[in-house]
Input
Amino acid sequence: MARIVNRALAAVVALTILAGGLVVAVEIAAAAAGRPPVLLPHDRWYADGRTHAWSSASARWLFAGLAAAGLVLLLLQLAGRRPQALVLRDHDGGSTEVSRRSLERSLQRTTARVDGVASARAKVSPAKAHIEAASNRRLPKDLEPAVADVAAARLRATGLGGTAVAVDVKVRDR
Output
């Protein structure tokens, strides 16, 4: 989710900078032609800037807003994200990477084949696999060990299970 918000915010910032650059270019062309401001009243802004101090309330609010926007962008960049690729180790000590999404889909298909499981969702990180299964049984609690065993076997078969990957399973009624 954070990755989607980050990309959308980056697109908005990029489009805003592009639009601002186009407006400035239009204003420069108008000033070079000896015309009054077209879109931005930069002559009034310049006059206001010469008469108002930096410590005025309006300037402080503007700077505080810009600082807050910068801080939000910085925090979004520093936010932790799940890795897109996971390292798989084979028996000979070699390693390769697999897409986290493809491994999650593989676990979903594998655990959905367990008798009594109607559907399954999986999330995988380098240290943990979380499986959420929906059951079509009346008493779904007995399915958790079976789903956990199937998921652990699948992780071992891929090579991720060679490292200490915990399998967390939750089974719910449909």
Summary: The longest strand covers residues 117-124. The mean pLDDT is 84. The longest helix spans residues 2-32. DSSP finds five helices and five strands in the chain.
